[in-house]
Amino acid sequence: MSTLKDNIKIIPQELYTFSATQGTDLGALATTGDGRYYRYVKMGATTAVPGTVLQAPASDAVNLEPAGGLAIGQANATGSYGPFTISTSTTIAANLLQGAIMSVAVTPGQGYSYKVKSNSATAAATGLSITLEDPLQTNLSTASRVVFQLNPYNGVIITPATLTGPVVGVAVSAIPPAQFGWVQTRGLASVLISGAAAPGAGLIPTPGGTSGSAGTATGAWPVIGFTSATATTTEYDLVNLSID
Q1: Are 90 and 63 in contact (CB under 8 A)?
Q2: Which H or E element spans position 125?
Q3: CA distances from 174 to 19, 118, 171, 193 (A)
Q4: Are both 223 and 166 inside the same structural domain?
């Protein structure tokens, strides 16, 4: 079952270091005590660039989060951890969903979310088998529909020209591909700027299609922080992050 923790008592890895070995929970929250917050992540396929904005792995609207959800193959009783099957055709590697969150999108059981413990592999086929880390809080039936979101801190990438996942932080070190380290989510941070911004301006990710940058907030884009002084395009200026 998912374990609640008040905080991480021992931080196994220093702020600007990275490691090929995982030292704590992905997404673990740490603070320097002066208003700066950090999350523990695993880097994706490219090296992080300090000062660039990072996002979660790109969402999968076919195998994980299709409109209307994935169909359940059989009824599952309250208290069950599974395994249960998905009757929609999927292509998913074994245990890709380990640590992912499953949301019940369509009733029965809608509104609940559960952490995934393990899954089987499928290749354009039905029968994906899921085992949960959390027990079902209400019955699921073949009318239920579910969607999955991978751990957003597992395989983070520099934000592309158009976001394909939620923003998770700003790189503070050059974490190599598939290695573990910290990214900043709150407090003053050095951030790549795209476009001039006045003091106190709200910033959004990838304005104007500039990968990894932040710029003046417009429309419905999520604000990730505010300038502490006048910011200049292409510079790495101080931003008061508000991601967490």
Answers
A1: yes
A2: strand 122-125
A3: 11, 31, 7, 18
A4: yes
Asked whether residue 95 falls in the same domain as residue 170, the answer is no
- Number of independent structural domains in the chain: 2
Bridge partners (DSSP) of residue 236 are 192
Query: How far, in Å, CA of 78 to CA of 65, rounded?
Result: 24
User: Phi/psi of residue 74, each to 5°?
Assistant: -155, 160
Residue 91 shares a structural domain with residue 138? yes
- Which single residue is written with the structure tokens 């599974």? 82
Give pLDDT tens digits for 64-81: 999 999 999 999 999 999
Domain ends where: 128, 149, 170? 149
Which of 99, 126, 149 lies at the terminal end of a domain, its last residue?
149
Q: What is the pLDDT along the chain (244 residues), one digit of tens a residue?
A: 555 444 555 566 788 999 999 998 899 999 888 999 999 999 999 999 999 999 999 889 999 999 999 999 999 999 999 999 999 999 999 999 999 999 999 999 999 999 999 999 999 999 999 999 999 999 999 999 999 999 999 999 999 988 888 899 999 999 999 999 999 999 999 999 998 889 988 888 877 778 888 777 665 567 999 999 999 999 999 999 999 9
Residues 178, 111: one domain? Answer: no
**Together in a domain, 52 and 160:** yes
Residue 130 placed within a domain: yes
Domain that holds residue 136: 70-149
- To which residue do tokens 């299709």 refer? 66
